[in-house]
Amino acid sequence: MEIPGSKWTLLITLALIWGSSFILMHLSLAHLSPFQLASLRIVSAGLFLLCVGFRQIPKIPHHKWKYIAITSLFGTFIPAFLFSIAQQHLSSMVSAILNSLTPLNTLIIGILTFGLAFKRSQFLGILVGFAGSALLIVNGAMTHGQHDYRYAFLLVIASLCYAINLNLIKKHLSDVNPLAISVGNFTVMFLPALVILFSSGFFNQVHEATIQTASLYVIVLGILGTGVANIIFFRLIQTSSPVFASSVTYLIPVVAFFWGSMLGESLTPVQFLGAGIILCGVYLSGRK
């Protein structure tokens, strides 16, 4: 399953998918617990990927499985639960904004741990994008004062997990097919997620209409927002750089703001300014 397109096409596609994921999470959490949401998301994505890519499993070199397991933990498993817990206490917009800390963490971890080479334009792009995110965070805190910002720390941890994952994939899995990485990841995660889903009481509630509707949102989130998106994301990492790939998190808040406006939430001039700064940061980080 080859993913065509330039790095910019892949980046924008990912932003549209992941930017919409926060709304689906918000709708799901109205009736599901964070552990039900995260585990069902992983199980749904795992079933989809195993169906379309099970032939890829034997193609993964034996010595690569340790990196497959580590990237499944940092790239999906831990962040899925952290985001589900945090979004009970933060708006989907603010969650998307805090996710944009990932490029800065990717650059820092890449330099300190993986010997990542970077250009001045990339570093400048990271700083510009981070400034735009900071502006949106401050504005979000003022606009959504009812939310508990102590849970933002969970999203900072999630962004660190994503940063570790990005650098690991670029350094150790660049020669592995993106679909194979995704299938391998969810082969590792599937059973633990299924155990958590069973222990959460989900199957005792699944007969309820509201639970079924919420579950449908999660299944869409799992297949499209996790399964398909992971394949695209791994392809993007391989064809660009960890820093550029992580800059998708700067575009995600823009998409999240769009969905928020469709649901009747207004965008302030400050939010528009922050989104514009973020776009400038993404452009700088991707320049040759």
Count of individual beta strands: 0
Oligomer: single chain
- Largest sheet features: none
- Tell me the number of structural domains: 1
Straight-line N-to-C gap = 28 Å
Mean pLDDT over all positions: 85
What does this structure look like?
- The chain has 288 residues and is mainly α.
- It has one domain.
- Helix content is 77%, strand content 0%.
- Helix 1 crosses helix 4 (92-98), helix 2 packs across helix 10 (209-239) and helix 4 packs antiparallel against helix 12.
- It is globular.
- It starts with 6 loop residues before the first helix and ends with a helix.
- The mean pLDDT is 85.
Record the SSE blueprint.
Elements: H1 7-28, H2 34-53, H3 65-86, H4 92-98, H5 102-113, H6 120-143, H7 152-172, H8 178-199, H9 202-205, H10 209-239, H11 242-246, H12 248-262, H13 269-286
Helix pairs in contact: 1-4, 1-10, 1-12, 2-3, 2-8, 2-10, 3-7, 3-8, 4-6, 4-12, 5-7, 6-13, 8-10, 12-13
Key attributes of the depicted protein:
single chain; 288 residues; mainly alpha; 13 helices; 0% strand; globular
Short structural description:
With 288 residues, this protein is an all-alpha fold. It has helices spanning 7-28, 34-53, 65-86, 92-98, 102-113, 120-143, 152-172, 178-199, 202-205, 209-239, 242-246, 248-262, 269-286.
